[in-house]
Write a structure and sequence with these properties.
Number of strands: 11
Number of helices: 6
Oligomer: single chain
Shape: elongated
Distance between the termini: 92 Å
Strand content: 15-25%
Strand order of the largest sheet: 1-3-5-6-7-8
Largest sheet: 6 strands, mixed
Length: 243
């Protein structure tokens, strides 16, 4: 069998490999084969995505993703300069799966990005990548968080091409003006790991639940309703007997 030459995400795409029209997510590399730094990084990304996706589903629009390529310029297709946010949200776009986020295909870039810091990425995330998100991608809000050092948590909002710090409130949370939600730390267990996790909260302080947490809340509420009904029935029986 003749061997097939498949464009590699590590090699520049030749002009012949690019379609005549601007490339879409189906034309561009979507995976560099590099996993998240640790299992906790992976779980933290999943937690942010899963909860946000439930919130977006209730809105009826929007996309939440992570660890996927973000294409903001055709120059990336020529030089293979890949950017992969650990977590991002785009509002006011149709729901549905994406292989990569291609700005000229989707019609807009992310509204918010979170990078999960590690020893090997922290300096880049806090400097060059932050500048790239501000100057070239124009992401309105940018956050970083270290899953193994919860105190290393910060958020920024874009003003005039530069990021200005967002305030961490007394509860240790940062309000997102774009989402009208709070991003903050929560001590608890997720997927068997007890740690300090980054979670979404309503401005009133309620934590947005995962699917499992929502199911448990519904079950507990149903149990409480059943117990209340049983108590009312017993009280009515007692009144009937007394009469």
């Amino acid at each position: 069998m003749a061997s097939l030459l498949i464009p590699s995400p590590y090699l520049p795409l030749a002009a012949a490999d690019l379609p005549a029209l601007p490339p879409t997510q189906d034309d561009l590399p979507c995976d560099d084969g590099v996993p998240m730094e640790t299992l906790r990084h992976q779980f933290q990304m999943d937690l942010l995505i899963d909860v946000m996706d439930r919130w977006l589903a209730a809105r009826g629009d929007g996309f939440a993703g992570g660890n996927m390529f973000l294409y903001y310029s055709l120059e990336q297709t020529r030089h293979n300069t890949f950017v992969g946010p650990d977590f991002f949200v785009a509002l006011d776009v149709p729901r549905g799966e994406r292989k990569s986020w291609v700005i000229w295909e989707q019609g807009r870039g992310p509204d918010l990005v979170v990078e999960l810091l590690s020893a090997s990425t922290a300096q880049y995330d806090k400097t060059l990548k932050k500048t790239l998100y501000a100057r070239q991608v124009h992401v309105p809000e940018y956050y970083w968080y270290d899953p193994f050092n919860p105190e290393d948590f910060a958020g920024f909002i874009l003003h005039g091409g530069y990021y200005q710090p967002l305030v961490i409130d007394a509860r240790g949370r940062i309000h997102s003006p774009t989402l009208n939600l709070d991003l903050g730390r929560w001590s608890g267990t997720f997927r068997g790991i007890e740690a300090v996790w980054l979670r979404w909260f309503t401005p009133e302080g309620a934590m947005l639940p995962t699917e499992a947490e929502a199911a448990q809340q519904h079950a507990e509420a149903a149990q409480q309703r059943a117990e209340a009904a049983q108590q009312r029935a017993e009280a009515a029986q007692q009144r009937a007997e007394a009469a």
